[in-house]
Amino acid sequence: MELASAAGSVHRRFHKPSAVQLCTLMNIKTGGCTEDCSYCAQSSRYSTGLKATKLSAVESVLEAARIAKEKGSNRFCMGAAWRDMRGRKSGIRNIVEMIKGVRALGMEACVTLGMLDKEQAKQLKEAGLTAYNHNLDTSREHYSNIITTRSYDERLQTLENVREAGIHVCSGGILGLGEVPETDHVALIHTLATLPGHPESFPVNKLVPIKGTPMFGQEPVKLEDIVRCIATARLVMPATIIRLAAGRVTMPESEQMLCFMAGANAIFTGEKMLTTDCNGWDEDKAMFSRWGLEPLQTDASQVATDFIPVHHDYSVLDDDRGSKADERLQAHG
Ligand code: SF4
């Protein structure tokens, strides 16, 4: 509780505490992925009953984005079940159109498409992409128990390519993969917090066990470990947007509130979250009104960027970024 309280104080200096960003994630290409991520319904190595599809048409994706905007989301994320972008020239062309269309709606655009090289990152930046999601998933130490088809360093290389292109980095983890929270959650956060710049976005996923995947039957991660993870991330990455992502649907409202108090300030809302269920807009709207929360309306990624350190820096509580954040929040009312 001390950790959550300290994180809550830092959170209140860097963010408007009642504001929680609404994001919607759409699967634009389902299943048939060659990777072996042992939690994933979309890997072609496991029998999960999921039917693989081709890349969605640009117009259907933009229609979904329009609906998400109307319902109150201000970030639209698009995910494709690919290992990487090699040999996907027409795919990239369509995705560029999707990004442009989402940005034209006035929404933040994020994509998650697997590993990315420098040239592809540049192309996505030119299309106006706000953020690229590429999770580290877990600690370096636990990683090889979860995925064997690409290395931790390859993941870090993608994050570097994204950062170099000037796109915001969205990278986080999945809790409940059989890791030891005391060491593996800390190691995951440490890796991200000691990159040349903090990720602007840190998604915290609670494993949704899928029948047919090796992770099915894992013991669920405990609430206290989720809250500790969020609070620790908030303390060491004070300006980052912390997203309560997959698995929120399994958390009672009281548990979600504890996460917001400890520093989480974004959720995924809509019909689906990739292949798993998601809390819907109406349900979230009602929850917001019960607790005095409001959708984050400002360009959150822009606010965050002002305070993201570009060098390793642990003096977050002593330097003047906190008071600059105070001024900024006052200016935003
Ligand atoms: S998590 Fe992504 S890369 Fe891994 S198997 Fe699923 S779709 Fe493929």
UniProtKB/TrEMBL annotation:
Keywords for the protein's UniProt record, in alphabetical order: 2Fe-2S, 4Fe-4S, Biotin biosynthesis, Iron, Iron-sulfur, Metal-binding, Mitochondrion, S-adenosyl-L-methionine, Transferase
CDD domains: Radical_SAM
Chain residues that bind [2Fe-2S] cluster: C77, C110, C170, R243
GO biological process: biotin biosynthetic process
Amino acids binding [4Fe-4S] cluster: C33, C37, C40
A GO CC term attached to the entry: mitochondrion
One example GO MF annotation: 4 iron, 4 sulfur cluster binding
Top enzyme class: transferase
Cofactor-binding details, from the entry: Binds 1 [2Fe-2S] cluster. The cluster is coordinated with 3 cysteines and 1 arginine.
Domain annotation Radical SAM core: ranges: 15-248
Enzyme Commission no: 2.8.1.6
SUPFAM superfamilies membership: Radical SAM enzymes
Pathway: Cofactor biosynthesis; biotin biosynthesis; biotin from 7,8-diaminononanoate: step 2/2
InterPro entries referenced in this protein's UniProt entry, alphabetically: Aldolase_TIM, BATS_dom, Biotin_synth/BioAB, Biotin_synthase, Elp3/MiaA/NifB-like_rSAM, rSAM, rSAM_sf
Cofactor(s) listed in the protein's UniProt record: [2Fe-2S] cluster; [4Fe-4S] cluster
Top-level taxon: Eukaryota
NCBIfam families: bioB (TIGR00433)
PANTHER family, sorted: BIOTIN SYNTHASE, BIOTIN SYNTHASE, MITOCHONDRIAL
Family per similarity comment: Belongs to the radical SAM superfamily. Biotin synthase family.
Name of the molecule in the record: biotin synthase
Native source organism of the sequence: Xylaria hypoxylon
Lineage: Eukaryota, Fungi, Dikarya, Ascomycota, Pezizomycotina
